[in-house]
Amino acid sequence: MSDFISLNSIQRHFGVYHALKGITLELQPGRIGLLGPNGAGKSTLLKILMGLLSPSLGSGTVLGIPLRAGNNIQGNMELRRLIGFMSEADSLVPGLKGVEYVTLAGELCGMPRRQAQRRAHEILTYLEMEDARYRKLEEYSTGMKQRIKLAQALIHDPPVLLLDEPTSGLDPAGRDAMLRLMLEIGRDFGKSIIVSTHLLADVETVCDQVVLLINGQIRGQGTVEELCSRRQDRYRLQIQGDREKFAGFLRDQGVEVLDETIKGEVRIQVSRDWAPQQGFELARKSQVVLRGIIPDDETLEELFLRSVEGAETENLLAGGKV
């Protein structure tokens, strides 16, 4: 899948509302987090990637299949055979049992009925739904609904999965289990996964690439390490000794101590010409052991919040237009 996803100035309009405002992306196979707040355009982009929506403007390819403005029925059908889609909405069929629903999804993908049935049982066993497979869908809990949606996305063994808010509504145990499954499916079975979410922890747990989508525009793309900037004025001082006493000493010396703390560390903000050797001198004077000085890089959460605030400021300066 070297030719995975390539998008060039993709736009999508719904009347006067511009959901996507010129998306340009080059993505390699892997586990990709599509991260953004509610209303950022994530679901719209996923639907374009799998051919449920056509772009209003722009072009691109997904798995070598062209995306074009207008109705491209043949290309859309090819894409759907290669992609498994787990929607945020339940989209379940009342009256069907779990195994019947997953089997139906397989048949809709072109699988013979007997093959679809066998495959449905295999997937439901893998997802630990042995006891639930013969229960009707309307009797399912939220966690079971999320798993059955994942099962129908996997039925035709696609190379790519698009998962829209896969942990939505789950309790902590259910969320951890879903994240574990997503990681296993991507890492152990070699599938590329695009996870659309507004939850930073989900991306950090599962994904090796991140696309930051805010207000219909790409605000960042790369690994977490690539996206999070290295700050030149913040450090984490790892110490052995009385943390509070050391922090007080630093304040007396005119060093700004940040409130956020980790046990055994003091986070500081200094001038850009501050040298790490000064940290060892301060530790010597305050009689604590300084075990390390680590540059305090921006976290994914800080990057996300900074990007959202920047987009809101730009929108206000533009008169609030979308």
UniProtKB/TrEMBL annotation:
Residues 5-240 form the ABC transporter domain. It comes from the Bacteria. Pfam families: ABC_tran. Keywords: ATP-binding, Nucleotide-binding, Transport. InterPro entries: AAA+_ATPase, ABC_transporter-like_ATP-bd, P-loop_NTPase. GO terms for molecular function: ATP binding; ATP hydrolysis activity. The keyword ATP-binding applies. PANTHER family: ABC TRANSPORTER RELATED, ABC TRANSPORTER, ATP-BINDING PROTEIN. Belongs to the ABC transporter superfamily. This is ABC transporter ATP-binding protein. It comes from Telmatocola sphagniphila.
